[in-house]
Write a structure and sequence with these properties.
By secondary structure, the chain is mainly beta. The protein is 0% helix and 42% strand. It has no helices and 27 strands. The protein has a three-stranded mixed beta sheet, with no helix packed on it. The N and C termini lie close together (10 Å).
């Protein structure tokens, strides 16, 4: 769910925009000047042609960016090879985990680099993938038929996604312990979840009319079709205090903070600000945001430039030279 565009005969929509229950898609398009545009598309129950747009991704101590030619850039801590993406080609989406990086290729396969101690990079056999997401020590892939695959650490059941169907978007969440969560948005606007439920972050079974999902540290947030938000799990330090938000078209959940952005490109944020990670609340012309557990965030502006806020350690926010395609 985020911004929406047609590229190479593929219909793409990201993890943070709006897909209504009637399958109309709300958001920006690179060639549309209005703040809100509606394009009605025919989508199967499994959204076989829909792909989550993820042109930037904030991981733990590192950041990833997608270039218009299908190559990738990375900055930040290089330990375990998490930033070794210079050889990737044909990439249409990226996802950064705790110490690993994923890239979705245009042919539906996935590449990975970085720490693989729990098998989180064992994605070479995946095919027909239309979206990727990362947890702390696991990776998730959405297939074109609406089913889901996962690999990596499964100590809390975070990989138990094999029975999911009719999924149109996925997200990974993190926990204070070694566990993690996996989230799936269904075509009917409901949400499924599995993994560690230490703070009630999996208590989403009653959610309806959801068009976007995001997993943070011990909490989950959902964007409803009317532009309001719901949350489950920990609200310590107001990390999930999103119930008063309105007019939201995209969401992202970080460590102990949450971000939302509106159709006019402005931003709202809540939670801990110890590393100035809420500094993005003053941004404008924003089309996409990615947040990390380690207190840094990335924002994609309408002109394709990338901005950052929060913890600057290891060069994770050295993104000013980047030029990223707007979804």
């Amino acid at each position: 769910m985020k911004d929406f565009f047609v590229q190479k005969d593929s219909l793409l929509f990201s993890n943070s925009m709006g897909m209504n229950s009637d399958f109309s898609v709300r958001g920006f398009s690179g060639g549309i000047s209005e703040a809100t545009a509606t394009l009605t598309v025919t989508v199967s129950a499994a959204a076989a042609t829909a792909t989550q747009c993820s042109p930037i991704s904030a991981g733990t101590y590192h950041s990833l960016g997608l270039k218009s030619d299908g190559t990738c850039v990375a900055t930040g801590l290089t330990t375990d090879g998490r930033c070794n993406v210079s050889g990737w080609i044909g990439i249409i989406a990226v996802s950064a985990g705790n110490a690993h990086s994923l890239g979705l290729k245009s042919d539906g396969t996935v590449v990975a680099t970085g720490r693989n101690t729990d098998g989180q990079c064992n994605v070479s056999g995946w095919t027909d993938i239309i979206a990727i997401a990362s947890g702390k020590y696991h990776s998730i892939g959405l297939k074109s038929d609406g089913t889901v695959v996962a690999t990596g650490l499964n100590n809390a059941g975070q990989l138990n996604v094999s029975g999911w169907t009719d999924i149109v978007a996925i997200a990974g969440g993190q926990t204070a312990s070694a566990g993690g969560t996996s989230l799936g948005l269904k075509s009917d606007g409901t949400v499924v979840a599995t993994g560690l439920n230490s703070s009630g972050q999996l208590n989403v079974s009653g959610w309806t009319d959801i068009v976007a999902i995001a997993g943070g540290l011990e909490f989950t947030i959902g964007l409803k079709s009317d532009g309001t938000c719901v949350a489950a799990g920990s609200n310590a330090n107001n990390r999930s205090a999103v119930s008063e938000w309105t007019g939201i078209v995209g969401i992202s959940a970080g460590g102990q903070y949450s971000y939302g952005w509106k159709s006019d490109g402005t931003v709202v944020a809540t939670g801990v600000n110890n590393d100035s990670q809420l500094g993005g609340a003053s941004w404008t012309d924003i089309e996409y945001i990615s947040t990390a557990v380690d207190n840094h965030i990335l924002g994609l502006k309408s002109d394709g430039t990338v901005v950052g806020a929060g913890n600057t350690g290891s060069g994770r926010l050295d993104v000013s030279p980047w030029s990223v395609p707007v979804c």
